[in-house]
User: Fold this.
Amino acid sequence: MASTGATTAAIAARAQISQPYLFALFRDKKALFLATQDRVHNDIRAALTEAWRTATPDESPAITLERCHTLLTNPDTLRCQLQGYAAAAADPHIREHMRRGSAQIFDLIQHLTGADEASAAGLIAKSLLLSLAAVLELPASSQASCA
Assistant:
C-alpha cells in the first residue's frame, strides 16, 4: 500500500496543505486511505438514507437504488470505493476495514427496506453493478438494465 498510488507530496498539493501537515493528520498513507474509505462509506450511507426517505410507497427498491447513485454528488466516491475493494485483495487490514464498511451498508439496506438477507444481497449486487456502470461511464440505457 505504501508504495502504490499518488505520492504524499501530490496528495498534499491537491489538498492545498503542506506535506508535514498531511502527516500531522494521518500517520501514514494507509491511515489516509482508510480515512478516505470511511468518508466513502459515510457518503454512501447518507445517499441510501436520503434515497429511501424520499421514496414513494409504490417505488421498487431497485429504482430507489438508482436514485441513491444520483445523490452521490462527488464523482470520485464510487471510484474510491472500487479502489478500496482492489486494495483489500492485497492487504488484510484494508480488507477488514472494507468488510466492516460494506457490512454497515448491507445492514442499512436491510433496515431501510425490511429485506431478508437474500433480498438485501440482491440489492447490494445491483448497487455494485450500478457503481461499475457509473465509473465506466456506460450509456444510461446500460445503467438502466442493471436495475
